């Protein structure tokens, strides 16, 4: 049975253990349901109370939700706050200030601890350095950093002075970085000379140099470089400065700048259905509320917890559950620089044992690769380590197949720990559909139920509700505090992408297909319904990869990209390519396929490399010239073609396209 089929018949239910229920903040389903009812009966009152209880305001808000310009919703908008103060200053004078904020484990295993007090001083000093570089409230700053304490310090320091950060994942190419610097109108880039991953020293600053050399970065004045390793890198006089240079003489005290609740805390680029990535803009007040609240609700974080989210700060998960949430909650968290498979695939388990991690949050793709490793090498099986510190496990980024869920439950959680399969998106800011560890009975492969106040539903194209058991489109019918505010510089695209007119223009369309179970009404995400792929939990636009391929103008005439299911990476990229020369076969085809893979890595980043590349004399098209993507998806999967192909000009190309290289 395939993973997809087995999830359809999934009927195993795992109620939370009694002890977990007793200890939890939201204790039992009745408590969860009571919160949902409160939110339904007095939507604004509910959120106003949460915002007062969970956020420190420098100026209290009087308006909770302003819908007058929907879908450009505003939350708490006459209130003022500072995000960094809500993560750091808030703990001063409480027992948290001397607790460890960050346990940093470097690639080579070196461990450093930073207390809340120390982190506040480092953020303050860095914030002063940014100010000395002329960076001001509202300026955009690109952060292109490895997973380090310094990365989090850079984000917090921007927040402290009201600068809007835009973190670009360290695996993105110079071209991708160039586009983001330009789109954001960034005044500065914060980077490192190198990053350490799996024992290798990989360049970052050199990529920044390439990105700037591509031109168009007219707003950029400064590049700040963290010397992660002793290896020198190119430094442009006047433009580039090391951290040491700019930090020298700066005081550790920096008064946080109060900003309006709707002030953009950050922009994070993500893939959509066109070739151009979207700059998802988040607020300060509503976002911060969500980061704090979901740490409490979903992870039930307690003072003695050691939280570890394995996501990179380059993704939204690393924003909400590394850079902001754990600090706002006053938790101790592990930050890991390296990769799960180095020096061997036991690294995660070894680190859980070593740091006595209690709440562990990772992606299905990591779990699947570690299952595979443990199956081939018993030495890296989790049973070799003491994982008894764990009490809650989390999953994020893509649907988790029940097989991986069960393995995680048994071999990592010791059948003791609730698994929270958290569904959310860059756009939602934080969890929206997820089990609560002390309340929700879990079902493998299901993200279960919406958080209180999240009005999630499954509807048809017109926005009409569908009954349980019927597959449809996932929507959220009412706004929520941490929702995307706009697409940076493109409000029209924001409206068009997320609030379709056919549904009334106010319903948030997630872009995922979903179905609710007939018995419990539990949500199960069936995958994207737009041209977005999810490869190892990384979001990629098929159009983006297509544009990258056709930009190799000396070689490529036409390209179409689709996803196909993959046991390890969830989905895999499959590209169908027509060359400007006769269709290659054999060794020649392999050679060109590799050339194209490297080209895509250079244009976007290695994560976007097509796994499969197929060559044809043409692509299957309808009479009006539209590429028949459904047909391509079938070919990619290796399925028999059942669609009507009578309109195809040249049916023989289907055979060509079925050939792998
Ligand atoms: C897409 C969002 C959420 C942060 C990391 C990814 C998929 C995410 C789940 C889950 C099924 C999931 C969806 C979503 N997704 N979590 N628990 N179960 N699917 O953020 O890059 O914005 O991607 O990831 O397809 O739309 P993202």
From TrEMBL:
GO biological process, one term: acetyl-CoA biosynthetic process from acetate
EC number assigned by the record: 6.2.1.1
Leading EC class: ligase
The entry's keywords: Acetylation, ATP-binding, Ligase, Magnesium, Metal-binding, Nucleotide-binding
SUPFAM superfamilies per record: Acetyl-CoA synthetase-like
Binding, CoA: 197-200, 317, 536
Modified residues (N6-acetyllysine): 626
Any single GO CC term annotated in Swiss-Prot or TrEMBL for this entry: cytosol
Binding, Mg(2+): 550, 556
Domain AMP-dependent synthetase/ligase as annotated: residue spans: 98-480
The record's account of how the chain is modified after translation: Acetylated. Deacetylation by the SIR2-homolog deacetylase activates the enzyme.
One protein family per Pfam: ACAS_N
Annotated binding of ATP, by residue: 397-399, 421-426, 512, 528, 539
Domain AMP-binding enzyme C-terminal residue range list: 544-626
CDD domains: ACS
Residues in Acetyl-coenzyme A synthetase N-terminal domain copies: 32-87
Any GO molecular function: metal ion binding
UniProt keyword annotation of Magnesium present: yes
Recorded catalytic activity of this chain's protein: acetate + ATP + CoA = acetyl-CoA + AMP + diphosphate
Task of the protein: Catalyzes the conversion of acetate into acetyl-CoA (AcCoA), an essential intermediate at the junction of anabolic and catabolic pathways. AcsA undergoes a two-step reaction. In the first half reaction, AcsA combines acetate with ATP to form acetyl-adenylate (AcAMP) intermediate. In the second half reaction, it can then transfer the acetyl group from AcAMP to the sulfhydryl group of CoA, forming the product AcCoA.
Assigned protein family: Belongs to the ATP-dependent AMP-binding enzyme family.
Protein name: Acetyl-coenzyme A synthetase
Source organism of the structure: Ramlibacter tataouinensis (strain ATCC BAA-407 / DSM 14655 / LMG 21543 / TTB310)
Species lineage: Bacteria, Pseudomonadati, Pseudomonadota, Betaproteobacteria, Burkholderiales
The gene coding this protein: acsA
